Amino acid sequence: MQIYRQSRRLRDVRYDVRGPLLTEAERLESQGHDVLRLNLGNMYPFGLEARPEIVEAVSRDLGSGQAYSDSRGIPEARAAVADHYRRCGVAGLRAEDVFLGNGVSELITLVLQALIDPGDEILLPAPDYPTWTGAVNLTGGVPVHYLADESDGWNPSLADIESKVTPRTTALVLINPNNPTGAVYSAETVRGMADIARRHGLVLLSDEIYEKLVFGGARHHHAALAAGDDVLCLTFGGLSKAYRVCGYRAGWVAATGPLERAQDLLEGLTLLANMRVCPNVPGQYAIPVALAEDSPWGADVIDPDGRIERQLALATERLDAIPGVNCVAPRGALYCFPRLDTERFGIRSDEDLVLDLLRSEHVLVTHGTGFNWPEPDHFRIVCLPDAAVLESAIGRIAGYLERRAHTSRARGPGVGGQLSRADLM
């Protein structure tokens, strides 16, 4: 009997944010359990709705949205993106240097397909947003992970990055503000990464989807400014997070630097954009409204009433208070990425840990190795629920970990191994 198998190219592709854990959560929900999903940075289900001006712009142009657009996106939206970066100090960016896409995730895959030959090495942060590693593997490249320094606010180690450059290295990826750690990279770190790209002739790929979600006096630094005129920089951004329209899939990538030497690459990206026909057209009409210079987008709009910032601080404080848990305070994005004492909690597999947490407490988080962190000692929690729900969720996590610690101690020293659910009953 013929067995139909997936492509071998998918062998090393993972996206655990929506993987087997979500399947198990759906199974539990089908049995009548209420599962608190803290695995996705999805704004609307947690009451964070878009501004009415953005929704009205899409509604107003639904008729025009019946037609295909230019494969790179509607001109007015691409011009709005170029204007946005020029106001941020990125001189000379033109609308024709901007490609729109169905969110940053699609554009990551398109850019890497245009850039990578089999065997090319791409430098990626560990932890990273898993679409980056998955897309590198899917396109035949080799992901090479450099470590972020947890003791330095999760800033990447420049020395570690430099040590991993080889003749096959093609590009350097930075994710700033960072998902999953919540780090906002210092100006020194961003300049240092641009300098590494400059010295080694690398393309700088800068994922800045959370650029406006920075808190506590932190400041976001655009990689394109540090890259200047002599480093090819592709900057990824979009409306999903800061403007709370995840489902509109309105993202972009903007190319800056020595574009005269990148025409062949950009022609390849145009070819791939043509093959997907065009981005979702109605969602594109939100971009000019969101990015307009005279729009009233301030901190009270990006983070209404400071809610996200307060919830990040609350989650950090509550997680850090759990014995055996340490949490670096996030300075941006929507997440905490706490560290667990693996010996105290008897952890060998962080995926098994969060699966058991889901089954026992009905709280869905994502394990750290799902973000290509090398050790089973972290997990990511989304901090979007209101304070009362977030406190309840972290309270359930604390109770679960306390039971694990008690069981691990009862086993005694030298009795290792992953604890099973039966052990905790």
Quickly describe the structure.
The chain has 425 residues and is α/β, with parallel strands linked by helices. It is built from 17 helices and 15 strands.
- Number-wise, the strands total 15
The number of helices is 17
Taken as a percent bin, the fraction of beta residues is 5-15%
Radius of gyration: 22 Å
Q: What do the pLDDT scores average to?
A: 92
Biggest sheet: strand arrangement: 2-9-8-7-6-3-4-5
- Shape field: globular
- What can be said about the biggest beta sheet? 8 strands, mixed
* Helicity range: 25-40%
Low-confidence stretches: none
| Structural category | alpha/beta
End-to-end Cα distance: 44 Å
Could you please describe the fold and organization of this structure?
The structure is a single chain. With 425 residues, the chain is α/β, with parallel strands linked by helices. The chain has helices at residues 20-30, 52-60, 75-87, 103-115, 130-138, 158-163, 187-200, 223-227, 263-275, 281-284, 286-291, 299-302, 307-320, 342-345, 350-361, 387-411, 421-424; strands at residues 36-37, 98-102, 121-126, 142-149, 155-156, 169-175, 203-207, 233-238, 250-256, 325-326, 335-336, 339-340, 363-364, 366-367, 379-382. The strands form four sheets. The chain has an eight-stranded mixed β-sheet. A three-stranded antiparallel β-sheet has the order 11-15-14. Strands 1-13 form a two-stranded parallel sheet. α1 (20-30) runs parallel beside α15, α4 runs parallel beside α5 (130-138) and α13 (307-320) packs parallel to α16 (387-411). The protein is globular, with a radius of gyration of 22 Å. The relative contact order is 0.15. The mean pLDDT is 92.
